[in-house]
Amino acid sequence: MQASAATLGGMLVPGAGLPDSAPDLTICPKSTPPARKLCAFRMEELTSFSWDMRLTLTCLQGLVNRSQPRLYLVHDYYDELWLDWLRERGDIDEVNWLEIADVFGRFLPEAKVVFVTDPAIPASINVATMLASVHDGLVATPRIASQFDLPMGHLPDSWNMGMDLGFMNWKRDVDAYRWVFEKIGDQLSRRALAILDPHEVALRDYLLEFKIPILWISGPQDVSKQAQASPAEEKEFARETLMKWPANIPCFGWPGSGDDPQGGIAEWEGVRLLSECGKFELCTGYDGYSPTVGNLSVHSGTSAKVQQTIPPTVRLQHDKVYFCFTRSDGDGWNFQRHYYRKLFTDRAHGRVPLGWQMNPAALDGQPDIVDYFFKHAKAGDCFVNALSGVGYIHEDVYANNYPPDQREQIWNDFVRLSGIYRARLDATVMSTLAEMSPERLALLARIPGIKGIFANYGRTHVTTPDNTNIIVGGVPVFRSVNNGPASGYNWTPSARREAEFSMINEIKRRTPLQRPAFLHVFLGNWLTDLEMAENIAKGLGPEYIAVRPDQLVPLFEQHVEQVVSFWRDGMV
Q1: Left, alpha or beta for 297 (phi > 0: left; psi -120 to 50: alpha)?
Q2: Residue 325 forms beta bridges with which residues?
Q3: What integer pLDDT is reported at residue 410 of this predicted model?
Q4: Which of 371, 395, 498, 510 has minimal CB crowding within 10 Å?
């Protein structure tokens, strides 16, 4: 039974169990290796009907790359950087830049039919993407559909030979989702799902390529923007659908809509729903200031085997405060693709030790990108398995929608799966999101190979001097000692200085009186410049010593052992 997990191509079946080591197992669908000569097109060259054409091109890309990745679309500056990296790594030999007419001239014959969206029903964009994935179709808006001369039906029963979805006369988004899952739900992938804003274009190449089902859940404020939104019904339909798909599979996209806090169900409620249904989030949509991920139909065809730099041993001094920085949000593939790249080229990179959160499942979907960071790591860089395990979950509610016996098996599989991917990331330490029950923390401490846990997305209301550092199941757990500064993203020099001053004061205020002391300092998205970390480290003074997260663990363990030995000797 254990071997069956790998032969199912990464799909985990509750109750089937999972081995501790499965070298061929992948949880995310993967393309074949890219063509040695890769065709590319810059989306910025589009002028007329720009969004409409971007939608069509991205869906066509998924169809084209299904047999072999041959088409790469440059959505922004970072896509072009990663294209250069593909060539530098040797994944491709040559890039053939095409004009828009050349793209369609070469690749349009891959499409057999066209599915036309209904501008009055935003969900029709996701519905058309799913229909196109099953029927080798193109997705187009009414404004440009006539250009493609592909079969298109006009009747409700013509969905298998192309279709103008405007003739469905849907009144609400949820009606469109119910219809498409009833018609083709059994033909969609069981390996993954996605929650994606219908107006997001990038990522659709990958979703279409692998027939990944797509949902979207409106937020309360969306009702004022469009009459089609029905958040309560959409959430309930999403819950029904999520529970029909296997546990311990990834959900791509993002439940929020860019920087709009009112767009979609949003992160907290969305990830909580996924967690309750036993699914983990792989953030590939627009979140914070990192855009939706594109070209996964190409990146997932690459491979990488990564290895951490070995940290030097640090001598324990009993009059010092040892602290480590951990930079948040590397669990998001969007941050890896975008903002992490910016920070790695920052002039101050490497001047202070730093833990970088990294989602290990990205070694399935964008291994070339993960490889870049390992190859460009400085001596003080440590990659921390985020968040919490193989994917982003709300730990205390994960799999809570299942009966207790299934929940236990799902958790056992999650722990083993996380152990497999932790090993691939070569990480010995892990970060978690939130305070959780002792039982759940103990489960995560059981992940094979984890030697230390760096807990919480900032300081929590339960953190005290007595529980800042604890040991769970033999694994040291370091709670974050600090909150983030109140000045937001700190784009200006004055805002950065204010954030640095605030952080220095808070760290000193939270430092225990006893020495040696051991601190986990959390650097959230407010860290927009690595010089900030350097300035904070300098501002703390010579009593404070910055180390890597994987150096803090053995220092703390050495101190604990000395304390135990002292008391043991005193008892003799």
Answers
A1: alpha
A2: 521
A3: 97
A4: 498
Q: Indicate the pairing of strand 469-472 with strand 475-479.
A: antiparallel
Q: Is residue 397 within 8 Å of residue 435, measured between CB atoms? A: no
Q: Would you give the end-to-end CA distance of the chain in angstroms?
A: 51
Residue 185's nearest CA partner among 134, 138, 233, 229 is 134
Beta strands in 527-569 (DSSP E): 544-546
Q: Which residue has the higher pLDDT, 341 or 153?
A: 341
With a threshold of 0.90, does the pTM exceed it?
Answer: yes
With beta carbons less than 8 A apart as the criterion, state whether 188 and 211 touch. Answer: yes
Name the amino acid, one letter, at 211.
K
pLDDT digits (tens, 9 = 90+) for 301-343: 999 999 999 999 999 999 999 999 999 999 999 999 999 999 9
The CA distance from 555 to 451, in Å, is 12
Tokens of 561: 């052992």
Look up residue 344 and give its two tokens: 């790695």
Query: What digits encode the pLDDT tens for the residues 347-364?
Result: 999 999 999 999 999 999
Q: Indicate the pairing of strand 469-472 with strand 429-431.
A: unpaired
Contact 192, 248 (CB under 8 A): no
Q: What is the residue extent of each domain of the chain? A: 37-299, 321-571
State the CB neighbour count (10 A cutoff) for residue 40: 19
List the one residue out of 49, 35, 152, 45 whose CA is nearest residue 103. Answer: 45
> Tens digit of pLDDT for each residue in 420-431?
999 999 999 999
Q: Which residue has the tokens 């991205």?
A: 58
Mean pLDDT of 461-466: 93
Topology of domain 321-571, CATH: TIM Barrel (3.20.20)
In order, the DSSP letters of 167-195 are: GG---SHHHHHHHHHHHHGGGS-SS-EEE
Q: Cα separation of 58 and 211, whole Å?
A: 14
